[in-house]
Amino acid sequence: MEKFIWAFIVGGGICVIGQIMMDVFRLTPAHTMTTLVVSGAVLGGLGLYEPLIKFAGAGAFVPISSFGNSLFKGAMMEYDRNGIVGVLTGIFEVTSAGISSAIIFGFIAALIFKPKG
């Protein structure tokens, strides 16, 4: 039960940070999303994001900042195997399944549903 509470608090905290960025600093959703992805990558590079995932579970794994952490992990794994070229290929290898799923399901939804207007 305690794990659920921490997941809610951490995930909610990440969302609050994003909302503050849009409301107070007047950042666009694109700027906010980019900032959260980059912050996840930086925290992953500093070795701080993985302990956060272990502590909060889905509260840290589900938000967009986790995508940045995944990009960093993929780049570093491939860098260890293939050198500097691996930095570019690693980000695609680790994230390709999620991005492909989003494209496929978005296309299917576009075929099934009719837009209003």
UniProtKB/TrEMBL annotation:
InterPro entries in the cross-refs: Spore_V_AE, SpoVA
Is the keyword Transferase in the record? no
Q: What Pfam family does this protein match (any one)?
A: SpoVAC_SpoVAEB
Where is the chain membrane-spanning?
6-25, 84-113
Keyword Transmembrane helix present in the record's keywords: the answer is yes
Keywords attached to this entry? Membrane, Transmembrane, Transmembrane helix
What is the protein name for this chain? Stage V sporulation protein AE
Native organism: Natronincola peptidivorans
